[in-house]
Design brief:
alpha+beta, 5-stranded antiparallel β-sheet, binds flavin-adenine dinucleotide, about 290 residues, globular, about 25% strand
Length: about 290
């Protein structure tokens, strides 16, 4: 289908974009890579009167390492995240996640800011963003604020952003020595979206797990931390039996969602299987 008619703006600065959002309120939608917004506009599930295309704002797509961690501009494409030397070296988890998003066209156009703002429960970044304890910088009429990942995802397709705010960057803390990370997913065979995706950040010392952070997307209405698994791993040697016993709690207390492709029960089962795989893989990479 063809989208409903809309006015199109291409601001050249964040200030101009925020001004347009303020002026048009709920009638306006931000456009970044367009790989989530345009399909829903074509289905007329969204009919914004005004589209604010932030894709031409310079300086919003950089990826840079600082002393506290890494800053990723909201317009960094999935492809840029996948191939960033800074991320491959300092935060390989995000590069690994980006590399399994959709297909090449999606990775070339889709942006990290757009993916986080859209908050699709089956998107790949949210679990990793939670496990990394990253933060999201939102810029609005009153300036910028930093939102911790744990407070950012509110519910399905809903975030802590206000309608007049833009995500401008994502901040990822530097990983401690001895940390291993991994992302594994069960992709939907048609779209590639995560039916279940598990991101793990863990540190190992003296053969035992010192800290574990596990973010899971695809299972529930929003990505979540598998805290019961994390607690069961800390202080343990990460052998297969121990990890399997801990991973059995991957969907504990979670309302697993079902659809035509996978029932809630199947998703909860996949969460256990993929959590075990991801933890073992991360443990093998911890150095
Ligand atoms: C065929 C197909 C397969 C896909 N497979 C996967 C997959 O396997 N895994 C996965 O994770 N994703 C997948 N996606 C989604 C893809 O990653 C999108 O690119 C992403 O979800 C949205 O990013 P975007 O830059 O395209 O955002 P857009 O579509 O431009 O925007 C999405 C939403 O975010 C808002 N928005 C965008 N940028 C900002 C910003 N900086 N600040 C505030 N709001 C903003 C928009 O207003 C809109 O509501 C797939 C998409 C398609 C079409």
């Amino acid at each position: 289908m063809i989208p409903a008619a809309f006015e199109y703006y291409a601001p050249k600065s964040v200030k101009e974009a925020v001004g347009l959002l303020q002026q048009h309120g709920d009638d306006a939608k931000v456009l970044a890579g367009g790989h989530s917004l345009l399909p829903i506009m074509k289905f007329r599930l969204a009919q914004p009167k005004v589209v604010v295309d932030i894709g031409r704002i310079p300086g919003l797509d950089g990826i840079a390492a600082g002393k506290d961690g890494i800053t990723i501009g909201a317009l960094a494409t999935h492809d840029a995240v996948e191939h960033s030397d800074v991320l491959k070296d300092r935060c390989p988890l995000l590069a690994e996640v980006a590399g399994v998003i959709g297909d090449m066209q999606v990775r070339n156009r889709g942006t990290i800011g757009g993916a986080l703002a859209h908050a699709d429960p089956a998107a790949d970044y949210p679990g990793a963003i939670l496990a990394l304890e990253a933060s999201i910088v939102a810029t609005g009429p009153k300036g910028s604020r930093t939102i911790a990942a744990k407070d950012f995802f509110v519910e399905m397709l809903t975030t802590a952003l206000s309608p007049t705010e833009l995500i401008t960057e994502v901040r990822v803390p530097a990983l401690a020595k001895g940390t291993g990370t991994a992302y594994v997913k069960h992709p939907h065979p048609a779209s590639g979206y995560a039916v279940v995706g598990v991101a793990v950040v863990l540190s190992v010392s003296g053969g035992k797990c010192q800290r574990a952070a596990i973010g899971i997307n695809g299972v529930a209405g929003k990505a979540y931390r598998a805290t019961a698994v994390e607690q069961a791993l800390v202080g343990q040697a990460l052998d297969e039996k121990t990890v399997a016993a801990a991973a059995a709690q991957a969907a504990k207390g979670v309302d697993a969602q079902g659809d035509v492709y996978a029932s809630g029960e199947f998703r909860a089962h996949l969460a256990q299987v993929y959590t075990k795989r991801a933890v073992l893989l991360a443990a093998s990479r911890a150095k």
